Amino acid sequence: MPAFLTFLALTLGFAVADLTNVRWLGGLFLIGIGAYAVFLMNRVAGAPRTSIGVVVVVGGFIVSRALGSVLGSDRTLILVASVCALLIFMIASGRKLARS
Q1: How many degrees, rounded to 5, is the angle at CA 28 between CA 25 and CA 32?
Q2: If you ran DSSP here, which 8-state letter would residue 99 be given?
Q3: 9, 24, 91, 94: which is deepest, by most CB within 10 A?
Q4: Could you read off the pLDDT of 58-87 as tens digits, one per residue?
Q5: What is the pTM of this model?
């Protein structure tokens, strides 16, 4: 559930900011949904993993600002939200990337 909420927070926050042209309103959606995701992840994975997850999402948000000019805002949004959600899923569940 935290991974889905991460994806939802990033995409819905962007959509609200873009559609209303009110960035702070999109930020409220992002922070509100994100805070609930943090709460749930903390219950499932504990504080250390949750802290790592927060750093991952904040880092993804920062990287998205740079990628936006290269890939365009829509592609960047989907890429960053998907990668962040995947990483949150792996961090919360304790899974590792498979090695070949």
Answers
A1: 150
A2: P
A3: 9
A4: 999 899 989 988 999 899 999 999 999 999
A5: 0.85
Strand spans (E) along 1-100? none
**For 20-65, what is each residue's pLDDT tens digit?**
999 999 999 999 999 999 999 999 999 999 999 999 999 998 999 8
The structure tokens 């962007």 sit at 14
Q: What residue has token string 């994100």?
A: 34
Residue at 46: amino acid letter: G
CB 29 within 8 A of CB 53: no
Please give the Cα distance from 65 to 9 (Å, whole number): 16
Measuring CA to CA, how many Å separate 99 from each of 53, 56, 73, 95, 96?
22, 21, 32, 12, 9
In the chain, where are the structural domains located? 2-93
CA distances from 73 to 26, 55, 61 (A): 15, 22, 12
Helix (H, G, I), strand (E, B) or coil at 23: helix
Tokens 């365009």 map to which residue? 72
